Each structure stands twice: as structure tokens, then as C-alpha cells.
Amino acid sequence: MNLKEAKKKVLEGLELQEVNSGVYFGEWMKVQGKDVVESICPADGHVLGSVAQGTEEDYEKVMIAAEDAYKVWSRVPAPRRGEIIREIGSELFKNKELLGLLITLEVGKTVTEGAGEIQEAIDIANFCVGLSRQLYGLTIASERPEHRLMEQWHPLGTIGVITSFNFPAAVWAWNALIAAAVGNVTVWKPSSSALLTAVAVSHIANRVVKRNGLPPIFLLSCGSGRTVGNLLVNDKRAALISFTGSTATGRRVGEQTAARFGKSILELGGNNCAVVTPDADIDLAVKGVAFGAMATAGQRCTSTRRVLIHSSIYDNFVSRLQKVYGSVNIGNPMNPHTVVGPLVDAGAVEDFKSTVAKAQKQGGRILHGGLLFSVEGCKDGCYVSPTMIEMEKQDGIVLEETFAPILYVMKYESIDDAIATHNAVPQGLSSAIFSNNIRETEYFISAAGSDCGIVNVNTSSAGAEIGGAFGGEKETGGGRESGSDSWKYYARRQTVTINYGKDIPLSQGVEFPV
Ligand code: NAD
């Protein structure tokens, strides 16, 4: 299937229009007279469709609908909420191929990665079905006679979900489905680079909600970060802002939300590193580093951006990695043989170019790539060649996240040096060690080792499963989403003391003689 055929199939199959409504408040906002944003396919620059943006008045309708829906949804028993989410998971499953293709067309992921992203949303839906029967609180031994002490978890209310372009469906699912299982209602402000995916996913979820006779719990409010994003972040009605995006924007979002005593989950940039020790299984390590650095054209928050290789295996490892870099197919993401598709837009290509230039100015030596790439039949596509740059030391541009397939290659002498260099960046999302040396792997995952939220042994820094809590430390923002007990971020903890006696003893032995 070529890009044109895929576009027709997806737009028809997912019932997308020439101009779609980007606002949902129980019904879709009328598009006439509204500003529209075009969705451009990064593979060849053609227009996929357009999405109408809401005004401030439309945003207000969304927030009012959210508050009304919360009153109903929060009272639905949690296991019943899980049933609704199960149905959404089934609908996503039925539409997996089409939604995956839409992601390929809209943000340029390869077909397998587009489908994988929808699978991730389905996995989260399944997780939520179980979660809806496991929203447990503790019972705690009381120090007072005939008292019971316990904690329970209530929903927060309306939650604002602001998402990045690079996981245009999965990040919504991580947040909106878990928030819904807990009893919340979400207002989604998607990335302006992935509006059609947001509209398509919202359509599917809202159809399920509507046919179950429930009010709108998955609201959508498309608009720019400066307008709708800013309104949402500063809106006291949004008890929690879950923000996924760059550290620069997330820093502002965190400050503004805190200033109004709102809660926030910040999932920001990474500068992820892999350490390859002398005992590593080289075949496995080469594959792991290559996947981490090149998958999604280096546009994963967990992409491997730095590799530290022990000096005793450095030359061998680098030449093996160069061979893999030289063998991958770069091009049209619809082609099943493509490994590296396009960057998301022309701005990302500019960032790639300027980062390569800066690294060279800092003494970086290009070991592979460093160039733009042209793909036959995709004249206006945003292609670059995956790039390896050898750096003498970790400084300047290496400390920054560039959202492109650029891997900084460095040498180390001792595991202590490797860990020190690994941790000496502002970000703290994901990390990896490739080693069969149990002492070094255990050291790396110990408290004295990697300072990241995610650590991997003999597997890539990229490609997390939904079962674990996802997120990172330092300038990555400290948030946790997805599996484990991350659901607690979407809830307020309430400590309950019940006196079932006839007296009123005070804690800490305090007397109150009345
Ligand atoms: P971005 O920061 O440009 O945009 C993210 C979202 O913020 C978009 O929806 C945007 O419209 C919105 N926004 C912009 N200005 C705003 C404002 N003033 N107020 C509120 N919202 C505003 O990020 P991007 O380019 O879409 O995504 C790439 C970045 O996201 C990378 O840094 C990547 O590491 C990060 N990311 C992190 C995670 C994680 O879990 N840690 C996951 C995916 C992506």
C-alpha cells in the first residue's frame, strides 16, 4: 500500500472528514467559522486533513461538561467503570490496523511501531479492567481503643492531559484510561502535530461512553499550547495536570500548576545512556543500542542518546555498530522494510542539522551519518540519516536532548567513571547496562548506580512495558504513569478515623478535661 492508498483507507475507515472538529463536550463542536490546523504527513509533506480549533468559549463548554460528567461517573462503581474501559479496549483492538496506520501517516512511525502504539493503549485498557477491582487502601492499627484507622482513595475530579506528538495515542491512554478507572474525567489537549489521531481516538472512546448512556468523560480540546494549553494549566477546575513534553515547556507548566496549588505529573525530556562493559554479549548489545538509538527515528523520550563503551572493547563495538547503522533502511514508513522513518516536521530536521554542527564544533567526530536523506517518491519528506558522533568528553550539546537519531559515542575506563558520566546530565529518564558481569550490573542498578527512573539490564533504554511505573527523575520531572501503583497520582488519599466506642480518648495521651 502506498501513502495515498493508506490515507484513503484510514480516513474512510476511521470516519475522518476533510475538516474535523477538534473539540468534544458531549457533542462535537461545529467546525464552521473556526480556525483550522492542517495535519501534514512527514513522510512526503502531503496534507492528510484538517482539524478545527476551539475558541475560549468552546474551552469553557468543555470544562463545564467535564464537571457535570464527573458527578455521574465518580458514582459509578469502579468495576463497572472497568467494564466500560474494557469495551474501549475492544474497539481499539478492532481499529488497531487503521489507527496504527494513521499514526504512521501523521507522525511518521513505521507500520509496526504505529500498530505497537495502539497495542500499548489496548494493554492499558486491559490493565485498567483489573485495576478497577483493586483500588485498595490500607487499614492501620489505631493507638486508641475501639478505633479504626484506614485510608481510602477518591478520584480528583477533572484532569487535564497535555500530550506530546511522539506517542499521540498511548500517552492519552496511560492517562485517560487510568484516570477513568479511578473515577475521574479527563480533558485532553493533544499535540498540534497529531490532531487527527486525537480526534480518531476520542471518537472511538466517546462512542462507547455514549452507547452506555453515560455523560462525556473523555473530553477533547484542541488548540495551541499558548492558548488552550495555557488555559488548562491555569484553570483551578483541573485538579491535576498530566503533562508530557519537553523540559522547557514542562518547567513552566509545573510552576504555573503549583502556583495555584494544583497537582501535576511531569513526563519530560530524557538523555538516556547505555553502558557497554567488557563482559557484554556484543551481538545483543549492538542490537540493543541500535534499536534504542534509531527506533522511531530517535524520537522516543527513552531513545538512547549516549553510549559509554569500555576502552578494551571500544574499537570492536564501534565498528560493529557502524555496520548496523550502514545497513538499515531509511525511508517511507509504509514500507515494511523501513527501519528509520522521517522526523516529525521541518523544524525537527533543522534541530538535527544544528545539533550535528554544534557537536562538530565541540570536537565531535562523525562516525556515521550527519546528513539529510532524500527518499525517492517522498520529495518533501523530513528524512535524516541516523548519526553516530564520537565525543572526547561529555559537555555542551551532549548534555541536551535533541529529538533526532543522534548517538554520542564515548569511551570509559572504570565502572565508577561510567556511572559518574552516566549521571552527569540534567535529565534522568531511562538507562541501560549491557553486561554479563553480575557485580557491575548489580552496582549499576543499586542506589549508587544509575540515577534514572528506569534502568535496564541487557535490554534497550527504549521500549518500556506498561506494567511498570514509567517516568524519570531530575529535569525529566519526577512523574510516574502507566503501571504498578501509578494510579495513586490520579487519586486523593483520605485518612479515616472511626471511633466505635463510648469514650473519646485522644491520641498521644493528650488529656482534655471537660
Ligand atoms: P512540546 O513540549 O513541544 O509539546 C508538548 C505539549 O505541550 C503539546 O501538546 C504542546 O501544544 C503543549 N504546550 C506547548 N506550550 C504550552 C504551554 N505554554 N502550556 C501548556 N501546554 C503547552 O513537546 P513535543 O515536541 O510534542 O514532544 C517531545 C518532547 O516530549 C521530548 O522532550 C520528549 O522527551 C518528551 N516526552 C517525554 C515523555 C516522558 O514520558 N518522559 C514521553 C514522550 C515525550
Distinct bound molecules: nicotinamide-adenine-dinucleotide
Query: Which percent range fits the helix content?
Result: 25-40%
Are there runs of 5+ residues with pLDDT below 50, and where?
A: none
Largest sheet, order of strands side by side?
Answer: 14-15-16-13-12-18-19
What is the CATH first-level class name of the largest domain? Alpha Beta
Relevant CATH superfamily of the largest domain:
Aldehyde Dehydrogenase, Chain A, domain 1
State Rg: 24 Å
Total domain count:
2
CATH topology of the largest domain: Aldehyde Dehydrogenase, Chain A, domain 1
Distance between the termini: 83 Å
Largest sheet: 7 strands, mixed
Structural class: alpha/beta
Shape: globular
Features:
Aldehyde Dehydrogenase, Chain A, domain 1, 37% helix, six-stranded mixed sheet, Aldehyde Dehydrogenase, Chain A, domain 2, alpha/beta, 2 domains, single chain, globular, binds nicotinamide-adenine-dinucleotide, 514 residues
